[in-house]
Structure to design on (716 residues):
C-alpha cells in the first residue's frame, strides 16, 4: 500500500463521483429560476439524473411532502420495466421528459426532467420511502433516475448541457446579480 | 481387370457418348472397388472400351490414341475441339444421339473434360495434385501423426451429377433392382480413394485417414459452369434465400435440397441431359490446412493495478498498453505456433484490482496450432518463459487440457467462494472498537442491483449474494483493511461504497458513515480446477 495516496485521501476525501462520473448541468430548467439539474455520466455512458445542489428543493431548509413519479394520468415512471442486456421495454425519454414532481411542505412544486435523451432504466424508489435521502445526499443516494443514452448518442446527449465550470460561472453570476440590483 | 458386369455395358456406352470420364463411368456403374479408381484413367478407359467392344460387331477405333495429352494442354485441346473440325469418328451407339455435332465432340474421348466431374477425377486427381498438397503441408511445418483429406466441390457438380443420373437411371436400375442414386459412388469418395494414398506417399508414409485432428482441404471451383445452378432458383425459390454471411445463395446444401424437391420432368425441361460439355477443367484453389484447437489451462496472478484482464478498447482506441491475456498468450502462441486464441477465466477482476494467492483459473483455446503436443517439461519451460517475460503477472499450473475439461471451470462458478482484501476509507473517524463488530457478521445476504458500473452490458436485476465472513484490520482513524469471504459474483466495490444505495445492506449502512474503497485484492478464487501441478 502506497503511503502517498493514503496521505492524499486524508486531505481530500475520495469520491466515487469524481472517480467514475462526469458532471453535466442544466441551469434554470424550462426557464424556472435556479431549477438546476445535474447529470452524472459514467464512463460507460450510463447517466444518473440528480438535483443540482442549487435546486430550490434543497434551499431554505425546505422539507419534502411528496415525490410523485406519476407524471400524467396515463404514465407513471414507476411502471417502467426493462428486460435483458439490451434493456428492452424501457420508456424512451427526450430532454424535456418529466420524471417526477416534488411537492415541498411549503406547498412549492417542482418538476424534475430527464435532461438527456435515452432509455429510462430505473427510478429511485428509495426516495419515496425516505424523501430525506434526496435532501441529505442529492448526488448519490438521493438520485432521481438512471438513463441509458443510445450507444451512438453517448457523446452527443450532453452537448446541450453545461460543464461543471460553465455551470459554476452561471451560479456565481446569479449570486452577484441580486446584490447589484 | 475392371469389376464390370454385362449389365454395365449400356451404362458405359451411354456415358462414353455423353462425355463422361472413365472414373465417372465406374461411379455410375456403382463400382465400389477402390483399386479400380486408383489405376491410371487412360488404362481404365482402354479396359472399359475393350470390355464394351467384346462381343460387339461394331468397329471402334481406339480412342486411347488421343489420350495422354499433357494436363496443361488439356483445356486448350478441349476448346479446340469445340470450335475446330471433326477428327476421328467414334460410334458407340449411333441410335442414341442423332445430333452429329455431339458425336464429333466425343471424338477425343478421354482427352476431353468430363461432363460429370469437370476434370476432378481426371488430371486434377493424381500425383501432381498430391505433390502440391504435400508441399503446402510441409511448407507450413505442422506437427501431426495423421491427416484427413477434405474436398470442396463446386455446387453445380450436384446438378451435373443429377443430370447424368437421369441419363442412365433406367440402365442402372436394370443392373440391380435395389440400386438407386445413393449407390452411385460420389465424386468426393472416388477422389479420396485415389488421393489418400498418393498424399500419404508424398508425405513419407503419414496416415491419411477418415478422421484426424489435422485437416487438409482442397477446393475446386469452375466459374465456367457456375450458372448451371441458376435455373433451380426459379423452380425452387424457397431453397435459395439470401443470408448475411453467404457470398452466393447457391451453396451445395441448397442445391442438394432443391434437387431433392424438383421432379425429373421439370429438371429435364430446364437442364440438358446429359450435361453440356465444359471447355476447361475445374480450378484448384489454395490448399487449406487446419489443426483442431488445443486447450490450455492454468492460474494467473496479477500484481499490477493498471493492467486490464483483456485489451481495453474505448471507441476503438486502446486504453492500456497490455493485458493479462496478451501477456499470457504471446509465449503460448509462439510455442504452439497457433493462429489465434480465445481466453476465458473463472470470473474477472477490474483493471485496478490485483489477484494474489494461488491465482485465478483460466483456460485458452489455441486455434489452428501447428504444434499440438508439448511434454510436461516443455510446459513447465513455457510457464517459466511467461513468468520471465513480465513482472506484472505470474502463471502456475499451466497444462494442456481437453475441451470438455474446460467446462469444469465455468460450471458451478456462482457457487464457489472468493476471498478479497479491501482498503476501506471512512468519512467519520474510527477507533479500533468501531469496527470490531464486523468480524461477528456471518453469512450476510446482500441484494445487489446490477452495479451502474456494468449496467450497460448486464441486465438490470436484484441479485442475492452472500458474504460468508468478514474481518476488519484497523489502519488509522479513516482507514481499515477489510477481508471478505464471499459467494462468487458478489460485487465488492459496490458493497463498500453502496452504489448510490443500490446494494443493500452496504458498508456505509453498517458503519453509519460514508465509506469508499481505495484498493482491492483478490486473495483466492476457490475453484479446484485445473489440478495443481507440483512445482
Amino acid at each position: 500500500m502506497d503511503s502517498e495516496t493514503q496521505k492524499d485521501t486524508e486531505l481530500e476525501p475520495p469520491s466515487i463521483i469524481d472517480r467514475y462520473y462526469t458532471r453535466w448541468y442544466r441551469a434554470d430548467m424550462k426557464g424556472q429560476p435556479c431549477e438546476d439539474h445535474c447529470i452524472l455520466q459514467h464512463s460507460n455512458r450510463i447517466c444518473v439524473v440528480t438535483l443540482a445542489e442549487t435546486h430550490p428543493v434543497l434551499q431554505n431548509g425546505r422539507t419534502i411532502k411528496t415525490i410523485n413519479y406519476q407524471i400524467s394520468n396515463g404514465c407513471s415512471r414507476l411502471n417502467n420495466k426493462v428486460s435483458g442486456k439490451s434493456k428492452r421495454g424501457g420508456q424512451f425519454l427526450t430532454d424535456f421528459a418529466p420524471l417526477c414532481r416534488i411537492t415541498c411542505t411549503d406547498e412549492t412544486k417542482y418538476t424534475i426532467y430527464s435532461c438527456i435523451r435515452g432509455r429510462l432504466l430505473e427510478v429511485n424508489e428509495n426516495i419515496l420511502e425516505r424523501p430525506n435521502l434526496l435532501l441529505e445526499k442529492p448526488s448519490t443516494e438521493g438520485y432521481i433516475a438512471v438513463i441509458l443514452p443510445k450507444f451512438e448518442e453517448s457523446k452527443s446527449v450532453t452537448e446541450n448541457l453545461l460543464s461543471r465550470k460553465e455551470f459554476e460561472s452561471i451560479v456565481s453570476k446569479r449570486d452577484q446579480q441580486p446584490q447589484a440590483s | 481387370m475392371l469389376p464390370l458386369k454385362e449389365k454395365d455395358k449400356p451404362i458405359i456406352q451411354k456415358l462414353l457418348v455423353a462425355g463422361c470420364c472413365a472414373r465417372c463411368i465406374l461411379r455410375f456403374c456403382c463400382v465400389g472397388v477402390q483399386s479400380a479408381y486408383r489405376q491410371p484413367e487412360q488404362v481404365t478407359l482402354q479396359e472399359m472400351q475393350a470390355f464394351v467392344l467384346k462381343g460387339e460387331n461394331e468397329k471402334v477405333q481406339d480412342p486411347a490414341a488421343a489420350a495422354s495429352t499433357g494436363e496443361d494442354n488439356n483445356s486448350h485441346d478441349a476448346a479446340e475441339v469445340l470450335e475446330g473440325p471433326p477428327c476421328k469418328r467414334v460410334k458407340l451407339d449411333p441410335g442414341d444421339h442423332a445430333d452429329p455435332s455431339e458425336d464429333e465432340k466425343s471424338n477425343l474421348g478421354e482427352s476431353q473434360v468430363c461432363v460429370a466431374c469437370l476434370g476432378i477425377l481426371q488430371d486434377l486427381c493424381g500425383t501432381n495434385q498430391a505433390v502440391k498438397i504435400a508441399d503446402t503441408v510441409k511448407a507450413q511445418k505442422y506437427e501431426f501423426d495423421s491427416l484427413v483429406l477434405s474436398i470442396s466441390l463446386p455446387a453445380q457438380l450436384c446438378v451435373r451429377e443429377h443430370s447424368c443420373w437421369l441419363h442412365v437411371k433406367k440402365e442402372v436400375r436394370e443392373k440391380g433392382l435395389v440400386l438407386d442414386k445413393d449407390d452411385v459412388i460420389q465424386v468426393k469418395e472416388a477422389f479420396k480413394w485415389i488421393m489418400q494414398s498418393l498424399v500419404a506417399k508424398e508425405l513419407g508414409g503419414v496416415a491419411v485417414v477418415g478422421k484426424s485432428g489435422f485437416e487438409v482441404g482442397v477446393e475446386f471451383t469452375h466459374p465456367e459452369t457456375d450458372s448451371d445452378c441458376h435455373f433451380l432458383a426459379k423452380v425452387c425459390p424457397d431453397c435459395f434465400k439470401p443470408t448475411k454471411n453467404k457470398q452466393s445463395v447457391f451453396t451445395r446444401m441448397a442445391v442438394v435440397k432443391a434437387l431433392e424437391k424438383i421432379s425429373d420432368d421439370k429438371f429435364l425441361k430446364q437442364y440438358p441431359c446429359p450435361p453440356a460439355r465444359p471447355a476447361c477443367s475445374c480450378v484448384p484453389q489454395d490448399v487449406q490446412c487446419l489443426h483442431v484447437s488445443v486447450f490450455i489451462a492454468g492460474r494467473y496472478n496479477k500484481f499490477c493495478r493498471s493492467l486490464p484482464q483483456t485489451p481495453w478498447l474505448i471507441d476503438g482506441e486502446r486504453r492500456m498498453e497490455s493485458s493479462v491475456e496478451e501477456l499470457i498468450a504471446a509465449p503460448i502462441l509462439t510455442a504452439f505456433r497457433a493462429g489465434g486464441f480465445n481466453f476465458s477465466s473463472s470470473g474477472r477482476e477490474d483493471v485496478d484490482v490485483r489477484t494474489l494467492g494461488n491465482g485465478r483459473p483460466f483456460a485458452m483455446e489455441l486455434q489452428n496450432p501447428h504444434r499440438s503436443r508439448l511434454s510436461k517439461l516443455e510446459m513447465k519451460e513455457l510457464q517459466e518463459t511467461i513468468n520471465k517475460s513480465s513482472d506484472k503477472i505470474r502463471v502456475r499450473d499451466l497444462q494442456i487440457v481437453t475441451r470438455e475439461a474446460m467446462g469444469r471451470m465455468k460450471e458451478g462458478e456462482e457457487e464457489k467462494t472468493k476471498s478479497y482484501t479491501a482498503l476501506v476509507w471512512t468519512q467519520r473517524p474510527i477507533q479500533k472498537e468501531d469496527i470490531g463488530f464486523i468480524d461477528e457478521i456471518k453469512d450476510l445476504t446482500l441484494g445487489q442491483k446490477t452495479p451502474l458500473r456494468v449496467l450497460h452490458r448486464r441486465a438490470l436485476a436484484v441479485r442475492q449474494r452472500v458474504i460468508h465472513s468478514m474481518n476488519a484490520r484497523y489502519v488509522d482513524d479513516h482507514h481499515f483493511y477489510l477481508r471478505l469471504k464471499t459467494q462468487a459474483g458478489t460485487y465488492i466495490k459496490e458493497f463498500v461504497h453502496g452504489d448510490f444505495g443500490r446494494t443493500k445492506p452496504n458498508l456505509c449502512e453498517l458503519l453509519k458513515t460514508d465509506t469508499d474503497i481505495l484498493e482491492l485484492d483478490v486473495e483466492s478464487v476457490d475453484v479446484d480446477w485445473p489440478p495443481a501441478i507440483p512445482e
